[in-house]
């Protein structure tokens, strides 16, 4: 409730509020990102079950947040990266402060609403209405490109991803061979999914602060006895 105060601050949607994690970090994925061959608490979902379909279902389109104020009464001149302001019915100003970016600055130096939905482009897929620009290639081997702003060279990562296993020393990666996937690339909301092999997918998720890489494992891999870790 705003009461009679001229300005009122509210905190909207939670989040880690961290700085942008460039996708270059994904090229240096730590050992914790691998699956252990001798782990006793790993569970695999039974194939062809409703539970599996729900777990791997891609998100729907990411809709704009409803801030419970009339969008036509937003004071756009008060925008910054994490702030919105609205004129209330009693003439006061309600100021909403987020923990993560809700606006991005355009080339015209205006603040616009962030849209992290991945959209098709002539040479792949992109997210351009964000605090950074992300481009995804037409196939998994093309990798992804992240550009923070026009004055900085883009970072390219994820080229030619490969499933590998590691022994206990962690120094000798061996390719993991599996039947090729018959699936096609899928996009849903802010997630793009590349099929790597039968039963294995590579997902990229875009939000306002980072691009996250996930390896989806639908079937338990059959590993050699000396293999301790499995991953990309």
Task: For this entry, give a set of tags.
232 residues, mainly beta, 4-stranded antiparallel sheet, 1 helix, 18 strands, elongated, disordered N terminus
Report on the architecture of this protein.
The chain has 232 residues and is mainly β. The N and C termini lie far apart (50 Å). It has one domain. 3% of the residues lie in helices and 32% in strands. The strands form five sheets. The protein has a five-stranded antiparallel beta sheet, with no helix packed on it. It has a four-stranded antiparallel beta sheet with strand order 2-18-12-13, with no helix packed on it. A four-stranded antiparallel beta sheet has the order 14-15-16-17, with no helix packed on it.
